[in-house]
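Hi D.,

Good news: the full-assembly prediction came through. Inputs first.
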Amino acid sequence: VRIVKYLAYHHDGDEPTKELMFRAKQTLERAAAEGVRVAREEQRRFLEDFWERSDVIVEGAPLLQQAVRFNLFQLAQASARVEGYGIPAKGLTGRGYEGHYFWDAEIYTLPFLIHTAPALAKNLLRHRYRMLDKARQRAREVNERGALFPWRTINGDEASAYYAAGTAQYHINADIAYALVHYVRATNDSEFMAQCGAEILVETARLWAGLGVFSERKGGRFVINGVTGPDEYSALVDNNTFTNLMAQENLRQAARVVKWLQDTDAEAHAQLVEHTGLDDAELEMWEKAADLMYIPYDEELRLFLQDDGFLDQERWDFENTPPENYPLLLHYHPLVLYRHQVIKQADVVLATFLLGDAFSYEDKRRILDYYDPLTTSDSSLSECIQCIMAAEVGDDLRAAEEYFMDVVGIDLADAAGNVRDGIHVASAGGTWMALVNGFGGMRERDGVLWFRPRLPSRMKRLAFKVRYKECMLAVDITERGAEYALEEGDRMTIVHNGETMSVRRAHMLQRPLQ
Amino acid sequence: VRIVKYLAYHHDGDEPTKELMFRAKQTLERAAAEGVRVAREEQRRFLEDFWERSDVIVEGAPLLQQAVRFNLFQLAQASARVEGYGIPAKGLTGRGYEGHYFWDAEIYTLPFLIHTAPALAKNLLRHRYRMLDKARQRAREVNERGALFPWRTINGDEASAYYAAGTAQYHINADIAYALVHYVRATNDSEFMAQCGAEILVETARLWAGLGVFSERKGGRFVINGVTGPDEYSALVDNNTFTNLMAQENLRQAARVVKWLQDTDAEAHAQLVEHTGLDDAELEMWEKAADLMYIPYDEELRLFLQDDGFLDQERWDFENTPPENYPLLLHYHPLVLYRHQVIKQADVVLATFLLGDAFSYEDKRRILDYYDPLTTSDSSLSECIQCIMAAEVGDDLRAAEEYFMDVVGIDLADAAGNVRDGIHVASAGGTWMALVNGFGGMRERDGVLWFRPRLPSRMKRLAFKVRYKECMLAVDITERGAEYALEEGDRMTIVHNGETMSVRRAHMLQRPLQ
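Then the structure:
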């Protein structure tokens, strides 16, 4: 006897159960009529399509290739059906974080989607747009203007009642704005920007404008006090560099997009003004706040500070911290962590990746040299970023490779010891970023993709595809050099190791590595 | 028919219910045998005795006299049966704060008891000694050395799970040490210091020694980072001036008392060393930490700062805060309060009262001038201290009197609107302090009581008694001057308006007011 069992589900927050039952029944009947072979074919096509546009080829270490694909497959699972929802920190694989999603979605998962499946990226950003009214309410709840996106949420309501290492992370606003601008630049989807994005930018910029203040004591600079940055081993600090730089970008992009809309789409601009009550004085204030944004810097160390008081804290005594005391948050009271120089996850270092142009090469190097030894990587959001920046400024790839091995294996090897609660979606996205932005050296600058490929010792070949504007670029890195070819589109300008090149369809370009 | 109903209770945490029932029955039988008249007489004697040693006479405003006595009566109620317990913030009058007690007991209620009923003060301090082992455990829980007394408690266990405006207020340790030293100085009870106090001082000093650190960036000064001071509208700050000064005093007193014990009572000293594992290097370190204690100060404003970052915060917009938005904590998110210069309760100002000798007269004046306008007095621990300092440094008594009217009436007039949750014991203690330390101008310096009496416009006479060492001093202030008389003891040195005087039994001294 052979039994074939069909199972169907439909979900929709607004429809009555009866309607969903009806739809599920219809789907079931169709599936039964078509047979299991058709369903299997559909699934195969879906996955073939996924691998065709998303695979990253790593030759020379079969286990590594498998681990990379395990991570990519997690991204496929987590993002395949995101219509109207976000991507939870654990995807659909476990109960960790109660199904909530965080800024990980925008900063760690979205880049992969933007460059391999932009329609999904758009779905996720549209979902943020849909919760804008709740974000406006939330801003009122915390006595601020504009909108404040929830630190953790399922349906747009703030699900965190804890501010120190939670809702005080206002940077969530700037992270969403950053991802939005990244998406639109990479897709030329100006329609989405006009219809949804501009309103998000306006309301998030407003939050920053109200949260910070021009400080007489800081020579008129715009300061943002009492926030928590990405590093959750510091809390309620003044002028977190990551937050201030991301807010600066948020303010600038908001002003830029409003002006662009004014110049190019009077109707959309009029609608935006109507929806938001925007006036021109606000734009001026945003630009002024961005221009005068205060970033703490120590002249003696020539170092960007994580926050105003960071250097005033005692250095953590790593030498006398036994290995079993990590992650520190499970063994030390938060107050002890807060009053030490000890970092849970890349913070200034993350800024040097996301906003690389705000830093000189020497700045980035000093930042990594100073903060990396203080970083415990107790968060799974950390090592992919440390890998990328170690690959950018390291003399060799040893440190980057070490970080990469941790990133790619966190769930397969259960290195964090908590995979029973679900896998780490952000680290899966981080795996892709470590390969593409780290070893591939990909950065976006002025609407152009820059590459600076480096081949790790464990790999004989690293190959991936990235979608950018109307093109799909295939990048193939071996010891002989890097090959660039267009799989879609006619012509694409790229920069390889500082050399601007035009890649044309059917004309593969090859250049040596550094 | 006349029905007389007798009711008895006994309480004891260790005895079985049966034993307590037996005792209650015995008490009831005795009471019934003696009759209600005897019980009433006992109660009358108890209260006569209380008023005899504790009354503060305020002539010229009958309602004010009544309000003062209402507060003193609350102190009688709250402290009469404290054997083995603390004094909860609401006494026994309501469920506010779940019956917990705080630092109020030591800083706001104990001064009254020390100077009117030292046996009760000793009971309370002995109770703190009994919880020293739990305080040691608590210090381990938060990864510190020595002992950390609970921020709120009933039985010695920390009952607060919240650190920002709660357990981060490490100053509780120094408050207890301060009260202990005050008690011993005022009573000459060196036996209690030897048997209980020294151990408390050692363990609290150890906490400070471990909590702070000598900072290279601050020129080797001893800094204490990441704490919350008395003002709960700031949280997790570096170098809260109140905390650092109180910690300095705690460290110094600990070193002094250990040396005194070593010199005067070898046995007690040996026992202390055995109980605490104390070594001489610790004493040196405490003295060094105290000598090098960092106190934030702004040279330009010539102002002691509430904490390192206080001036970097935006000034609260009092002008545009409607009256119905007070107390602010019920209308603004803590993060909003934290990033503004706005104060819930006297903080640096409290330090200028408790540790007056650390400040010049001009310092105190500038401190009151700067911080008082920023203080909302949203805590009932605030205005009594503002009253005292306004009386000390004000050109006239207008501000002090205004504060006093708020303090004395908080429960009678239900000014805070929450008397249904119980009365404010600390404010009752604060009433006594406002009268004695404020208008009476009483301070303790080098084992001598100093007075600088000023008569508020509403009063024709202010008279009170204070017990100090083996003496009981009666102070009687009218427009004609201040009269000092000894009711117990043979001779007492006091200072009136800077003039050192010797008061002898049966020789009343009179001096003009300023």
